[in-house]
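User: Hello, can you help with two protein structures?

Assistant: Certainly.
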Amino acid sequence: MNITTTQICLHQLRFHAFHGVTPAEQDVGSDFTVDVILTISRQLSELRSDRLEATINYAEAYSVIRETFMPTCQTLEAVASRILEALFDAFPQLEGAEIEVCKVNPPLGADCRSASVRLKATQ
């Protein structure tokens, strides 16, 4: 067996923040969710070692995301790209990452569950 890729996934991380263009979004805030997929390349022997150093600690990844998510931005693209940059800085073994940032119930004047931005990046 040859394992070529390992992905660490965090699903539906929830935040309340003040990202947005309108004054109401910046004053009252909105609810957001974040999904990330972190890709590393590891051999089977490294994975079977059961050592945290052979992978990415998802609790540490969450901390990076939480700290990076909170400073206010106008666009979801800015939020998502800032998080990706921080993850690549924090984890040198990271080869690729995907992120989706969703604003729950965005102020569109329509019945809309969420609006999101999805970015993919490689080292």
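That covers the first. Now for the second protein you mentioned:
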Amino acid sequence: MDNIVELTLRLFVALLLGGIIGIEREYRSKDAGFRTHFLVALGSALFCIVSQFGFGVDLKDSSRVAAQVVSGIGFLGAGTIIFQKNVIRGLTTAAGLWVTAAIGLACGTGMFLAAVVATGLILLGLEVLNALLPQFGSTTVMLSFSSHSKESVKRTVNRLRQDCIEVYSFEVKDHKTPQGEKFEAVIEIKVKRGQHNERLLDYMDELDDVTITCIE
């Protein structure tokens, strides 16, 4: 009975800690959110428990199953990484899944303190340090906007470049509408972290005939 309670506690703590990281990712509107992270942590803990108790007490190397989790989680993490137009996305999400699996393994072996400390450090790095040091580093933003004038699209791109904003690529499509020809542009740019969305909105306010569709 005591053994069942202990194993249940290990699984529950893994679910809880993995879910906490997932909630943070969900808050950041990432594709791998609460459900993905708590499943990774819970599955890793279960694999660890199975490797310890599922093959009998005479098993000489009970770490083999757990070791496969470390390499196996790489396939799941690789699926979250996207390389598009010279821009890599999803590395933080992949790393988050990898370390969440490690937290699950720690819970599966009963190392609750290490798992809790690791969860706290992850949240510290993802949220607290990111908020305290927004001016360091840069981020890639996908900016979508529309205009009824092709010249306005060109002026917008030139305006961004004049402010030393690096433009990776941009694509312009034109459509026929009852109001006339409409141009839709999608631009990938590299900006400094911290309040970059507000700065982009200020740029667009300078052009009356430009409408922002999306900032990602």
